[in-house]
Design a protein that fits this description.
single chain, mainly beta, glutathione-dependent formaldehyde- activating enzyme (gfa), 3-stranded antiparallel β-sheet, 5% helix, globular, binds zinc ion
């Protein structure tokens, strides 16, 4: 049976089919600013797995802490940053973990920019830590 993961904000809905290819926690400066939190939960699917059910998104291009481009799409109604594409992973589409209606399927496997981890935050030993952005997406 095929997994279907739905989500969105008030105005924009999306649907991701199948299992995510990559799930990361991240404490880079962009993730901290876009979420207003100290780390993000980023769920990556292949582009072909994701369907946007509304076009109310605006694209903003910026530069990552590693100097690569990020194209972030946010809702023009409420401002939620819902999805993005990275130069690092051009065939993938990132989705904000908190935007899924039911986030129970989300299992992070790595923590990127763990050098910015707050001292009080405990991260499970099974989650691979990368102090900054790895050079190779397979790390
Ligand atoms: Zn980040």
């Amino acid at each position: 049976m095929e997994e279907i993961h739905k989500g969105g904000c008030g105005a924009v809905r999306f649907r991701a089919t199948g299992h995510p290819r990559r799930v990361s926690l991240c404490s880079c400066s962009w993730c901290r600013k876009r979420t207003g939190s100290l780390l993000s939960v980023s769920v990556y699917f292949g582009k072909e797995q994701v369907e946007l059910l509304s076009n109310e998104l605006k694209t903003h291009r910026l530069k990552s802490d590693a100097g690569r481009w990020i194209e972030c799409q946010f809702c023009m109604q409420c401002g939620s940053a819902l999805t993005w594409t990275l130069e690092f992973l051009p065939d993938y589409r990132g989705i904000a973990g908190g935007a899924f209606d039911d986030p129970a399927f989300i299992r992070p496997e790595r923590y990127v920019y763990s050098q910015n981890k707050p001292g009080w935050l405990q991260i499970d030993e099974g989650i691979n830590r990368c102090p900054t952005m790895p050079d190779n997406p397979n790390q």
